[in-house]
Amino acid sequence: VRAIEWWLAAKTLGCSPLAYFVANALAFGAAVWAATRVAWHVTGRRALAVFVGACLAVSYATAHSLLFFGFGLTTAVALGGLAAYFRGEELEGRGRHARWVLAFVLLLLGGLAHEIFLAFALVPLAHAVIVRRRRAAVVRALAFTAIVPLYVLTGLVMDRVFQAGVSIIPPETAAIRFPLKVLVEVSARVGFT
Question: In the 8-state DSSP scheme, what is residue 3?
């Protein structure tokens, strides 16, 4: 996904440093907006949501997004996926399903672009279990957990097809063919999220 981001950037922005800076700033601005929407959906309080957005805006993620192309865009995509999920929770019928498909695609793209955003794929399930506490909500949120195995499968396919020499299965767990480190790290990140 990062390679596609860079290719699209080169085609659309060329070699202009100013264009990259503006694109990064706009993408991170969208990420701050999405974080504010997520906080508003979770807490129901606008003042707290604005505070969360302001905290993200002045965090290390701002500098990281402005310095490294693609991080702001990936952050916006991942947080936009969470915002779409929470908005879908408020809707019924086709609107809910459309938002959840959008959320799934955005969370998948965010996780594939940067593994830190894999934790976001487990947030819908955590929210359904801890906050909603309804069986139907938990069952619906289980679909989002499929993003983690899709990430693992994509890594394995990329490793086999392109023989990049980068495998997501650590050598110490290769005998059992289970990416234990990935699952432990993702679980820890969800806990901190």
Answer: H
pTM: 0.77
Cα–Cα dist 173/184, whole Å: 13
The one-letter amino acid at 5: E
Q: How far apart are CA 6 and CA 51, in angstroms?
A: 32
| Lookup: tokens for 182 | 């990935």
| Chain centre to alpha carbon of residue 110 | 4
Q: Which residues of the chain have pLDDT under 50?
A: 165-166, 169, 171-176, 178
What DSSP designation does 128 have? I
Separation of alpha carbons 115 and 109, rounded Å: 10
Neighbours of 137 (CB within 10 A): 17
Neighbours of 58 (CB within 10 A): 10
